[in-house]
Amino acid sequence: MNSLADTRSVLRVAAIGSPAPVGMTLKRTVDIMLALSGIILLAPLLIICFAVTALTSPGPALFRHRRVGFNGKDFDCFKFRTMMTDAPERLRKLLESDPSAAAEWATNRKLRNDPRITAIGGILRKSSLDELPQLFNVLKGDMSIVGPRPVTDEELERYASSVNAYLSCRPGITGLWQVSGRSTTTYNKRVACDTFYARNWSMALDVKIIAVTIPALLVSDNAC
Fold first, then answer.
1. Cα-Cα-Cα-Cα dihedral sign, residues 177, 10, 79, 38
2. Residue 154: its pLDDT value, please?
3. Alpha carbon distance 65, 143 (integer Å)
4. What is the dihedral of CA 77, 134, 151, 224, to 10 degrees?
5. Phi, psi at 194, each rounded to 5°
6. Angle at 22 between CA 19 and CA 180, to 5 degrees
7. Distance of CA 146 to the CA centre of its chain
8. Res. 7 pLDDT band, cuts 50 70 90
9. Dihedral sign for Cα atoms in the order 198, 201, 203, 207
């Protein structure tokens, strides 16, 4: 390979011949019903989170991040903004000056003590309220209520031989990895959870994951 772009192209091509798309019509119908219900019931909370984010730090209330979805299609993943507007520069400086932070980032693609996160952003992340706008991603068909955690192009490379499993699913707001310790697990376990989910999907499995999502959030020490 001559570049990272070449590697990513090969991984996307891996979607051809991947497992049958997970869920199909039944899963999509349930997604639409749950997303619509969630948006209606949580509208006041959505408005509060939007207002608090906009009023407490400079920058837009909503953040869009490019992620890889079903069959390798890119989409804009919606979140309430939890970071400073100069987050990329803050991260660059930290990784250049702090070897331990650089090692942590290289291993997990996240930081326990992240200087980019705003005060309100920390609360939104810990409670996972920052992810509520992804209900609109579900309505658009970019995501599912339950599925693998949405990944970036760079992260997709870490799936290696398991990339087919990831690409056969719509990424989920919640999922097997999200309720299995999340930030306390390794990235390899994340890949293993996504692979297991894709190969063993059933509506019963989705119901079980949804049922344990709220308790898992209540005991989570650091969402991301």
1. negative
2. 85
3. 13
4. 110
5. -65, -40
6. 105
7. 11
8. very low
9. negative
> How many angstroms separate the CA atoms of 209 and 187, rounded?
19
With H, G, I as helix, E, B as strand and everything else as coil, classify residue 81.
coil
Q: Which two tokens stand for residue 148?
A: 């693998």
Which pLDDT tens digit goes with each residue over 95-151?
Answer: 888 888 888 887 777 788 788 899 899 999 888 899 999 999 999 999 999 999 999
The answer to whether 133 and 105 have CB atoms below 8 angstroms apart is: no
Residue 182: both structure tokens together: 């999340």
Q: Is 112 helix (H, G, I), strand (E, B) or coil?
A: coil
Q: Any bridge partners for residue 79, and if so which? A: 63
Which two three-digit tokens encode residue 77?
């993943």
Exposure string of 95-133, with b = 16+ CB inside 10 Å and e = fewer, is beeeeebeebbeeeeebeebebbbebbeebbbebbbbbb
Confidence bin at 186 (pLDDT 50/70/90): confident
Beta-strand relationship, 62-68 and 74-80: antiparallel
Look at residues 109, 45, 41 and name the one whose alpha carbon lies nearest to residue 80.
45
DSSP three-state, residue 74? strand
Distance from C-alpha of 212 to C-alpha of 27, rounded to nearest angstrom: 18
Which residues does residue 80 pair with via DSSP β-bridges, in sequence order?
Answer: 62
CA 149 to CA 189: how far, in whole Å? 12
The secondary structure of residue 117, as a DSSP letter, is: B
